[in-house]
Design brief:
With about 140 residues, the chain is mainly alpha-helical. The chain has helices spanning about 10-35, 40-55, 65-85, 100-105, 110-130; strands spanning about 85-90, 95. The protein has one domain (about 10-130).
């Protein structure tokens, strides 16, 4: 899975690489995510396990700027719009793209930025425990 470092300590190339990998995974499961035979809950699980896990690999150490947060949010909304499909307007009899509010209502999980912040807090807690000498070992 690898991580990309630059000499300017910029995370932009890493995020670009992660989004590209997530896009590849999306295209592998595209037919399933757009299928009307699968429930929205199952599609959400597919998204979180196959696509989101690849995109967020190593995110605990990312120093995100507003620009990078926006780029991640746009990528997430893009996938969610394809997962949820168009909304049928019964009055006009037309289909239209769902807006962000409608997507947030349909996708009950926290957005990608909240997930990253939660993982960073968890990682910081782990590092703090290590500094106090509370090292946990697994029994084999």
């Amino acid at each position: 899975m690898g991580t990309t470092f630059t000499n300017q300590n910029s995370i932009q190339e890493e995020i670009k690489s992660r989004l590209k990998s997530g896009n590849v995974r999306y295209h592998l499961v595209q037919n399933r995510l757009s299928s009307s035979l699968l429930s929205k809950n199952l599609k959400t699980k597919i998204y979180r396990t196959i696509i989101l896990s690849v995109v967020l690999y190593g995110c605990e150490t990312w120093p995100l700027t507003t620009r990078e947060e926006r780029r991640l949010m746009l990528a997430e909304k893009w996938v969610l719009r394809r997962k949820c499909g168009p909304k049928r307007d019964e009055v006009a009899g037309e289909s239209r793209k769902q807006n962000n509010g409608e997507l947030n209502d349909l996708y009950s999980s926290p957005n990608i930025i909240r997930v990253i912040k939660s993982r960073r807090l968890s990682w910081a807690d782990h590092v703090a425990r290590m500094r106090r000498g509370e090292v946990y070992t697994e029994l084999w």
